[in-house]
Amino acid sequence: MRGRASSRDGVFALAVVVAAIVAALGLVACGGDTVGGGNSDEVTTAEGGPVEGKLTISNWPGYMDPGPDNTVAKFEDKTGVQVDYIEDVNENEAFFGKLQPQLEQGESGGRSIFVVTDWMAKQMYDLGYLQEIDHADLPTVFANMRPQLEDPAFDPGRKFSVPWVSGMGGLWVDTAKAPEIRSVNDLFDPKYKGKVTMLGELRETVPLVMLAEGIDPVEATNEDWLNAVDRIGKAAESGQIRRFTGNDYTEDLTAGNIVAAIGWSGDASIVENPNAEWRMPAEGCSLWSDNMVIPVGAPNVGAAFGWMDFIYEPQVNAPLAEYITYIPPVEGVQDLVKPELAKDPLVFPSPQFTAKCTDQDSPPDIEPVNEAWQEVITG
Amino acid sequence: MSLRQRLVPYGLLGPGLLWLIVFFVVPMYFMGELALRSGSLTTGYTFDWAWSNFPDSLAGHTEQIGRSFFYAGTATLLALLIGYPLAYAIAFRAGRFKLLLLFAVIAPFFTTYLIRTIAWKTILSDSSPIVSVLQTLALVPPDGRVLATSGAVIAGLTYNFLPFMILPLYANLERLDLRLVEAAKDLYSSSRQAFLRVTLPLTMPGIVAGVLLTFIPAFGDYINAQLLGGTQQSMVGNVIQSLYLNQRDYPEAAALSFLMMALILAVVSVYIRFAGTGAFMGDEEEAT
Amino acid sequence: MALATRSWAWLRRNALPIYAGLAVAYMLIPIVVIAVFSFGATPKGKLTFGLDNGFTTEYWTSAFSLPELNEALFTSLRLAALSTVISTAIGTLMAIALVRHKFRGRRLTNLLIVIPMATPEIVIGASLLSMFIYYTVALGFTSLLIAHVMFSISFVVVVVRSRLIGFDRNLEEAAADLGATPLTTFRTVTLPLLAPGILAAAMLAFALSIDDFVISNFNSGTTVTFPLYVYGVSLRGIPVQVNVLATMLFIVSVLAAALVMVQQRRAERMAAVRPEPIPA
After folding, report:
1. What topology does CATH give the domain A167-287+360-377?
2. Which positions 290-349 of A are in contact with B (Cβ < 8 Å)?
3. Would the ipTM clear 0.90, i.e. be above it?
4. Looking at chain A, which residues constitute the CATH 3.40.190.10 domain(s)?
């Protein structure tokens, strides 16, 4: 009796499930609809307004000086705007992933400003998720922006992005253990097997490897990208590369697990290894910026503009630069910071220093390269 | 049975079922629908009954799936071997200190996963004394390392899912009537026999629960492999993560997820059949 | 010789407690490391696992000096507490129904309970987010609570069920025979006997909630939970206060348990002093 009941039970359950699925899919199938898809045709220009009210900003961690008298507090005192400063941009893609459904609907989740890296800003713009910025609304910004940042390849004429900081991707080397590493090619030397790491972000690592092969990443063909990915893939499989990291390469450096890593110029404050230093690779580095952008659906754009202008005042940006230790975007900061910092080529690089450096760029046809890269990353 | 009596189970199940249906099944339906679409972020995702997403998502990822089985399975076994005696000791030998010990064992897991893992990474870093000891004991090759290996990932999984094993084991063990074990011994069975013939079968529901609660989430875990593994230790969770966030191939990510869930369900059903459905489902109330 | 046999015998007798002691030590290793390094002096106020810079208690005295950290921790504790209470209640009721009662759709219910555990977190997180957006539910504490309860229910059910199975019904039948209504029986007999299972399930639900990262990341809107905060600062160096607070959390939990234990002992001793009258 019980046996029969349970098999009848099972069939009943199955029937319910199947019926539900068929019904649900039937409703959708009538549509054959398409969801998503970018459209940068109907881009709006952000409209300014009075600098008041509430402002929500999403930024990367470590990009704001701490303490009760920090830059946020100064802005609040000066303008009366209430700032909700959130550090929830940990990775470009993870941030994009969680914001995408809202941006798709034209919402920004209450945020007026995000800060994302060049290529992600471009991607968001191409999908129609960002608003354009009228330079007339940001007099201080465009008066004080460093000239090298005024016309980048990913945003000619700065239509939708305002740099927060810039940085360089290059080599971190433990000079006590491997002083002779000076080029990204050295990372492939079997001598250092299992003792090197590379960044898991496609646009950070592969252009550097291509540079080391003498290829200009901005001009490179898909073929070039795929070859470089392949070379890295083989090194990963053979165990030459210990692992692909995010910001946590600094932990490996500190712990002495590695002798060299591809990493960022401004991370000196978190690498607790006195022998480790950032080196400009012989063939050149990669240059990137993290940029403020105004998303669709951003509330209180007036206050956002006020914030951007405020940040671009040299006397405001100087203490910020002292904390962040990345390259400030504002002209004139070098004279206002501590002398040791002013002389630091990693924070104030001369044009000669970055002569061979390349802008970060995406491959011409991103999908096959991204797919190949993900194969490499996920073993 | 009166109507009211017959409705009682539905009343008990009601809130839970409702919550799960609204906040799990409905989103899953959205996911399922997404799995049948094709396209990309720039072109949009068109619904075109793209059943091919399912085999496509499997292709090229069989290695990670096998690896996930191996890692999760080993971690579950280790957790069982460590957790069962511990749960037993807390249930029967701890006396008044039961609650204290239980909390002491679980409370480290109230600190965030990330901090625990960083602590382990420090303990197991290449230059730490622990690794040197392991090298002397020849458990690790002399120029080898512990981090960024399969061993580290399995160790991480085992550690982080131990509470999932211990708590159900404890919950079940605690009500074991020791007099039954005594009775077995009175009937001349050895300690070992008493354990195998009395304790083990009676605590099987706890073991089944613990194994399920450990294996299932461990299989889909990605963060242990990400933080403790090297380039060759990725699991299915990492693949899905990468498909979703990096490649933004939502349909394939959804398809692979469904396949993964189906796979786990299949394994679980086989396991339950093997362990006895009574141990998992309990008895339906017999009409007396 | 006798010493050897005696020690061997002692070892065999106490093998279980020794093994258990080792296991407990193993589980406490990271928390010990965390606690020790919360006393490390670091020039930049960032966490290092090394005491080369000296020993200091300054981070313990300034443990609550980081407002974002405090807020994140408080949010997580509130979230975990609420999530635990709700999911444990709902899950216990479901477990009782599943083990004790007859009803249609048992298989389906079992399926519905197991599947969420098998679903990768990113899928749950992303699909919940999509649904919330679609139905314009505001993202924040409420959406987080909904998500946390959802993924905890399954775990609670499995734990409580494993305790319920094979439960000795005689006690409840005896209560019924003595004239107790089903509700009274439930309250005075079933529930207390179930208590260890419910407690275990609650502890698991609490740990699940306070530790959740992926699902929270997707569904938190602009609310910051403790794991989200830690993940964020880990990119630029974790402040030592995080270690301090983590250690405090551990100590508070264990102290709470100790307090309960002391209370229980006192209750027992009181009962011993005033013995129950022996029934005739």
Report:
1. D-Maltodextrin-Binding Protein; domain 2 (3.40.190)
2. none
3. no
4. 40-160+294-312, 167-287+360-377
